[in-house]
């Protein structure tokens, strides 16, 4: 399916404010409510819109420390990668896990209350991940820009 300008406006608007009524959305993108609803339904059915979520304030829930962890594994064999990915997916403090090209095999984005909280996550979970031979953690001092909105 090819996206036209109206589809792009709908997607951009929903990424910024996903909790608006169809009437509000149709007004913002200059489309009738019924046509807007049909387009949103089509965008959902085609997989362009995968979910609707609430974004939480990390400070309010005690997760204000962000740590990026570079992980090097013992090898690149499929069973080593699969075992690592299976186990890392079970750690709720890991928000993102990316298989990387470069010096590290994986890059994790981990949230914690503070450095002590991260030390507990490291001890209980990260240090027990299969196949890990090296881990390097970098603490974010301040978030300069953060968005979930993709350019459309």
Structural summary, described in words:
With 152 residues, the protein is an alpha+beta fold. It has 2 domains: 5-45, Arc Repressor Mutant, subunit A (Orthogonal Bundle), CATH 1.10.10; 65-139, Lrp/AsnC effector binding domain/regulation of amino acid metabolism (RAM) domain (Alpha-Beta Plaits), CATH 3.30.70. It has 5 helices and 4 strands; from the N terminus they run αααβαββαβ. It has a 4-stranded antiparallel β-sheet with strand order 2-3-1-4. Helix 2 (22-28) packs across helix 3 (33-45). It is elongated and about 55 Å long. 15% of the residues are buried. The model has no long low-confidence stretch (mean pLDDT 97).
Layout of secondary structure:
Layout: H1 5-16, H2 22-28, H3 33-45, E1 65-73, H4 78-88, E2 94-99, E3 106-112, H5 115-124, E4 132-139
Supply database-style keywords.
Arc Repressor Mutant, subunit A; 4-stranded antiparallel beta sheet; 152 residues; 20% strand; alpha+beta; 5 helices; 2 domains; Alpha-Beta Plaits; 4 strands
Task: Provide the CATH top-level class of the largest domain.
Answer: Alpha Beta
How many structural domains does the protein architecture include?
A: 2
* End-to-end distance: 14 Å
CATH architecture type of the largest domain: 2-Layer Sandwich
Beta-strand content: 15-25%
The run of helices and strands is: HHHEHEEHE
CATH topology of the largest domain: Alpha-Beta Plaits
Basic shape: elongated
SS field, number of helical segments: 5
- Average pLDDT works out at 97
Strands in their spatial order, largest beta sheet: 2-3-1-4
- Biggest pleated-sheet summary: 4 strands, antiparallel
Number of extended strands = 4
